[in-house]
Amino acid sequence: MKYPLVLLVLAGLGLLGCDSVDPNSPLGKRQALFKEMLRTSEDLGGMLRGRLPFDEQAFASGAVRLDELTAQPWQHFPQVRDEGDSRARDEVWQRQARFQELADAQMASTRALAEAAARPPLQAKTLAPLVARVEADCKACHSEFRRY
Hints:
Elements: H1 2-18, H2 26-49, H3 56-70, H4 91-94, H5 96-117, H6 124-145
């Protein structure tokens, strides 16, 4: 009785793995980058909102890292919709000029944040509007181009 049960459990676990995204595919690469961007951005916002202790050096490093990350995912959106469980709406491929416009805005806002974070002493009142701009740019793109 135990043998068939073990086989059933192993088969079920094997099927769970079939649903995963290939990390080397364009979809897998951009998902990984977006997740890292989110974690980095959340840490920066957390420092400014008091959820995390403010560490000037960590904030500056995080701002630079976010700027580096923000330049990367756009290259992993192929010219035609790719296969897989993407949260990207079809509009990404139908309105590529607008999508690129929002990507450019995102890159500009993270660049401005990184530049400000490179000029100590860092003050929350100076950085908060820049982080808010980064977050607003993320939201703008998600509103138009992401399925929830």
